[in-house]
Sequence to fold (180 residues):
Amino acid sequence: MTESPASPPSGPSAASVAPGGDGLTVEDLKALLADAEARVQQHRDQHLRAVADLENVRKRAQRDVEQAHRFGIEKWVQELLPVKDSLDLAVENAGRADAAALVEGQAATLRLLQKALERIGVTVIDPVGQPFDADWHEAVAAQPSDTAEPNSVLLVVQRGYSLNGRLLRAARVVVARASG
Fold:
């Protein structure tokens, strides 16, 4: 009777040599398997830590965004509080002050407001004499002019404002046109 090719070798060394004839023993294969399983576990642990770290970063970023939304205007409010204080004083003293003192107080309050706006990055768009730019100006009228270049800003009806180079409100202007 012949042995089938799939049947294990018989004899005294059959338990110590792995099938396939690589010369590795079962103990060698068990050691390799244990080493591979340890590396798999190590990689699994590293993966789980990386996933947990990523989730923590995501949660922290979400909290930071929520805090920015909630307290993002804090600097702006701090800049405007002196303006409010000045207006409070003006209202409290309105009945006792003369017209000149009220005008002086209003001018001082306006200067405080202008400085506060400048500190937070707000600039005035006052384009008198400049060419009309539809991105920054809103034409409310066109008026003939002998002195101004056609299609230039002749008069500012309402100032515009930008915040750090981004348009907040376009300047409302009267545009010069050729007289004729």
